[in-house]
Amino acid sequence: MLFPTFYVPGLGQGMSIALVAVVHVLISHGFAIGLLTLIVLMEHLALRRGDGELEDLARHLLKPAVIIVTAVGAVTGAGIWFTVSVLAPQGIGSMLRVFFWPWFIEWIAFTLEVLVLLPYYFLWERMRAKHAGLHLALGWSYVAIAFCSAFLISGILGFMLTPDGWVQNQRLVSAFFNPTFWPQLALRFLGGLALGGLFCLGMVLFSRKPAAELRGQVMRLLGGWVLAAGALAALAAWFYFSAVPRTYSVHKVFAVLTSRLSQEAWLLWLGNILAVVVVAAAAAAALARLKLAARLLIIPALILAVGLVIEFERSREFIRGPYLMPGYMYANQVPLARGELLKRRGMLSQAAWYAAQPPGLEPRAPAGHALFMANCGVCHSIGGLNDIRDRLAGRTQPSVGVMVRRTEQMVPFMPAFSGTPDEALTMAAYLYEISGQRRSIDAAPPIGREGGRHE
Ligand code: HEC
After folding, report:
1. Is 435's C-beta closer than 6 angstroms to any atom of ligand 1?
2. Residue 407 C-alpha to ligand 1 middle, in angstroms?
3. 208-241: per-residue pLDDT in tens?
4. For position 287, what pLDDT does the model report?
5. How far is the CA of 432 from the centre of ligand 1 (A)?
6. Which residues contact 62 (CB under 8 A, 6 or more apart)?
7. How many Cβ atoms are within 10 Å of 19's Cβ, its own excluded?
8. Is the entire prediction scored with pTM above 0.85?
């Protein structure tokens, strides 16, 4: 608790980070990798065949891609840093220490990506006459740099689930080339290519630009592309989940469906099979040049493909259970090594920002609230998603007292409370009070009736 905690009403901390990150993933994978690779490939084919119409189409598709990548993609990329450094400063601080060089290089890669993409877009017309080959080289270098970015980020993200030998040897190489590194890199790259193919197909199907003949050719290309990249991405996903330790992978259904639906695992299967079938059908329709069928299928295919991306990111983030970095730090940013110390010395006594109130003034928030935010606030909100008041509603004060000290035994995702038994009581009293407010609104059943509830 070296840093103050911020409360995001409604969404809570975890979902705020996730929302920005998922938008960024969709754009960085689908547009920055997938769609742009396809555009460069189209330019390549156009130059080889001397097909001016295809080159025009590639250029036409580039405009929205560049706007989305440089505006939304870059803003959400910086946005991840902003949300994470405000909401999880200790976690990101530790990650920066482990991955200083990969991140340093990634920032250079990101800048280069933009520096290459902008002339690729703005100078297309001017280079077309005499320097077409050079222009194409610019395009392929963009693709290479985008791949480098994916390479660097995959090592860092994989570490957060499977740090492998790093916990013992603290070596960057162990941390980076962790057991899920290669399958995750393959999955992100191939998944990005498939998603980009779908975006591109959607644009081509609904654009007035290409003439019927060219549209047919491009539909064929994109249909085959989505089928091939999608099949390879599915294979990579299978390798990825086989590399995840069982201790984590068993949490997948619970992580995606939450406790409410966790007994209905078939829902998850149904959703995944439906997504694969609809995406494959849209791609097959494009391959067969069936314009109407492809137009009907592309929107549901895109929605379901986005759903698959969200499912993957959510499971990856959630299944690692009580950890932010297994073997090193809990999800609530308490390093494992400090957990015991905090239990003995207390959390508030270590909380510089909490104690540092001007003398004579009440602390900014009640101690119970501060303890809740530091211990549980990363996953629970008050009055929003995963509302702690719902989780504790209807409990007696002693049972709340027991529960807050047994969190690690209740749900596999939850870390233990870090603090002294007194602090646990303080937090329990606060939580009991706020969940009691909810109960008085919802009108609890009278004492002693059905079920013999004792308040
Ligand atoms: C890493 C995330 C995370 C942290 C940190 C966390 N929880 Fe949870 N907690 C969850 C999830 C996820 C659930 C289950 C939600 C659902 O029903 O799907 C849950 C459920 C609960 C439940 C209901 C359990 C049941 O079986 O009815 C209680 C009570 C609870 N949490 C209390 C706490 C308290 C107190 C803390 C802080 C000491 C805490 N949690 C910290 C993620 C977390």
Report:
1. no
2. 7
3. 878 889 999 999 999 999 999 999 999 999 999 9
4. 97
5. 15
6. 36, 39, 120, 121, 124
7. 14
8. yes
